[in-house]
Design a protein that fits this description.
Layout (H helix, E strand, L loop, with lengths): L1 H16 L6 H12 L6 H7 L3 H13 L3 E3 L11 E3 L1 H21 L5 H20 L3
Antiparallel strand pairs: 1-2
Helix pairs in contact: 1-5, 2-3, 2-5
Length: 134
């Protein structure tokens, strides 16, 4: 059941994000960079559950489009920091509004009490998985 719900959510987001020229993977990169600016590319890969190899392609395309900037030199170690450009931030803001709209649609027809109960149940579900269960 959860898998079907996630697939429906992802499919709807993919469809709506196309208007911004983004896939979910392409949306995930600037979102991860906004949460942790200046991190190396490996960090957004971990945050978005994408392999480093897959992220390289998204990163290269995003850099070519002027959405991200990869530093010429590492600040420490060998990893090159990646940051959003102003254009990347503006695109992320538009895409984020689209995803938030899809999230709101998930519960649009549910009464407030049902929405609160659903949130409570899902929180318990996530906690049980994280803690190893009751």
């Amino acid at each position: 059941m959860a898998g079907r719900l996630h697939q429906a959510f992802r499919r709807t987001c993919e469809e709506r994000l196309r208007a911004h020229g983004l896939s979910m993977s392409q949306y995930a990169l600037p979102r991860a960079l906004a949460a942790a600016p200046g991190t190396a590319a490996a960090e957004p890969a971990r945050r978005t559950f994408v392999t480093r190899q897959a992220l390289r392609g998204v990163l290269a395309g995003s850099e070519a489009a002027g959405l991200v900037r990869v530093a010429a030199r590492a600040t420490s170690g060998r990893a090159l920091p990646v940051t959003l450009t102003d254009e990347g931030r503006a695109l992320l803001d538009r895409a984020e509004a689209t995803v938030q709209d899809v999230k709101a649609r998930r519960v649009a027809d549910l009464p407030g009490a049902a929405t609160e109960r659903l949130a409570s149940l899902l929180t318990a579900w996530a906690r049980n998985l994280a803690d190893g269960g009751p």
